[in-house]
Design a protein that fits this description.
It is a single chain. The protein is α+β, with helices and mostly antiparallel strands and 448 residues long. The chain has helices spanning 22-38, 91-100, 107-119, 123-136, 141-146, 159-172, 176-186, 192-208, 212-225, 231-245, 255-264, 283-311, 316-336, 342-380, 383-411, 419-445; strands spanning 2-3, 15-17, 45-49, 54-62, 65-70, 73-78, 82-86, 150-152, 155-157, 250-253, 276-279. It has a five-stranded antiparallel β-sheet with strand order 6-5-4-3-7, with no helix packed on it. Strand 3 and strand 4 form a beta hairpin. Helix 6 runs parallel beside helix 8 and helix 9 (212-225) packs antiparallel against helix 10 (231-245).
Length: 448
């Protein structure tokens, strides 16, 4: 039997083949037959476009359009964009015919038809056929493997369940051989999202085992694989940097850092702490290293925010840009050490709120001046000026509304700190919208 041996007889045991088994031999022979069948593949009609792209499916022509029917719907193309059409047989129709001939309890037949569907790019249908084979025969090894499932302990598991097993297994019985075995077992079976989940587990395990080079690579891989907007990306990158800056895995910790960390987490420890080099394999040491890195980022953000405050009066556009840059720095710090920079982010938000409020107030004063001119236009009877001023006033109200909405967008992120600002702004926004409706109605009534 070919297998991935599990340390201590536990963990992941992926059965590959068992040539001594009559059933397994039947599977192997059937797979060979299926491969031979695939060489006689049937093709669908192929539509070649002028831009070099192509589409496969059953083609029908409807006037100036060509409709390509595919298993999950249809694609409509303009004839003048098509270079040529090559006729062929439709694999989906062939699949339907083959499936109709199968016995409803023929697990091996459904598996072989799944192989045929996969070879003809009918991926969704292939998965359904593999699943049908497993439904008929839960122990059907090739169909389970085709679905990306693994045999763990005494049953077949989907990859998400495998990841859960891996997490619990590493926590309960962690060793280097187990970690490497789990990684090798899952290699090639994971979707991108699942690969991220596994990297998150194995990176932590490698660090705790003192495999610092491997852990650094895993954390960097985790950062690279994570979405740009994912806060975890910044933290993973920071851990990789800490491990890269300290390749021995030792980090210099001051005594008060342990007390600070324990106080922050609400812990009481009677342990005697000493300043000196500590291993990054320990979670609390890593958290201290990350916290110090986050504080350095906050300091850089504070410098930018000081520049923003100085620019508020003379150049509000530059001040807004600087406040945003400072907030980005504080956001990075928060991603590394949750909420460590919240108070600074609130301060940056207050600065931007002040700027938007000042702009709204300036536009409100401009609106009042235009309103006085509008009254003069009514007295003089100058309809053209009256209409022109109405349009300008509507534009000013639009500008006021935009500034008030900007205030709300900032304030709602910190509802507790901006509770009064949110209430006032909502009232001002409602008044602004009502005034706009009134002016718009007046403009329409005078033919503007």
């Amino acid at each position: 039997m070919g297998a991935l041996e599990c340390p201590g007889g536990r963990g992941f045991c992926l059965i590959l083949t068992d040539t001594s088994s009559t059933r397994s031999g039947r599977w192997c022979a059937a797979v060979a037959v299926a491969v031979a069948v695939l060489s006689a593949a049937l093709r669908a009609d192929t539509v070649y476009m002028l831009d070099g792209s192509s589409y496969k499916g059953k083609v029908r022509i409807d006037g100036d359009q060509v409709i390509v029917e595919v298993p999950n719907g249809s694609i409509t193309l303009d004839r003048d964009r098509i270079a040529r059409i090559e006729s062929g047989q439709d694999p989906f129709a062939e699949l339907t015919e083959r499936q109709a001939r199968l016995s409803p309890r023929d697990a091996q037949g459904f598996y072989e038809l799944g192989l045929w569907a996969k070879a003809h790019d009918l991926t969704r249908n292939a998965k359904e056929l593999f699943a049908k084979a497993v439904e008929i025969d839960p122990g059907h090894m090739p169909a389970n493997l085709a679905l990306g499932r693994l045999f763990i302990d005494s049953g077949w598991c989907d990859v998400p369940a495998v990841i859960g097993h891996l997490n619990a297994w590493l926590d309960a019985d962690m060793n280097e051989a187990a970690l490497r075995g789990g990684r090798q077992t899952l290699d090639g079976l994971l979707t991108p999202d699942q690969r991220v989940a596994v990297l998150r587990i194995t990176a932590q395990a490698a660090r705790r085992l003192g495999m610092f080079s491997q852990a650094r690579a895993d954390y960097q891989g985790l950062a690279d694989a994570s979405a740009e907007s994912d806060p975890g990306r910044q933290r993973s990158s920071a851990i990789a940097q800490v491990l890269g800056d300290n390749p021995s895995g030792l980090y210099l910790v001051q005594l008060d850092r342990f007390a600070e960390m324990e106080a922050r987490n609400g812990e009481e420890s009677g342990a005697i702490r000493r300043s000196g080099f500590c291993s990054l394999a320990r979670d609390n040491v890593l958290e201290i290293a990350l916290r110090e890195r986050a504080k350095a980022i906050i300091a850089a953000g504070q410098e930018i925010m000081d520049q923003a405050k100085n620019a508020e009066i003379t150049d509000d556009a530059r001040a807004t840009t600087l406040y945003r840059q400072a907030d980005q720095q504080f956001g990075k710090a928060d991603a590394i050490d949750a909420d460590i920079a919240r108070s600074y982010r609130v301060e940056a938000a207050r600065g931007m709120v002040r700027i938007h409020q000042a702009r709204a107030e300036s536009n409100a004063q401009r609106f009042d001046g235009l309103n006085q001119r509008l009254k003069l236009d009514l007295k003089t009877g100058d309809k053209r000026d009256y209409i022109r001023n109405l349009k300008v006033m509507l534009k000013v109200l639009d500008d006021i509304q935009a500034e008030l909405e900007a205030v709300l967008n900032l304030a709602v992120q910190y509802k507790a700190e901006f509770k009064l600002v949110i209430g006032w702004t909502q009232d001002d926004l409602a008044t602004t919208k009502a005034m706009r409706r009134t002016l718009q109605g007046e403009l329409q009534s005078v033919g503007g």
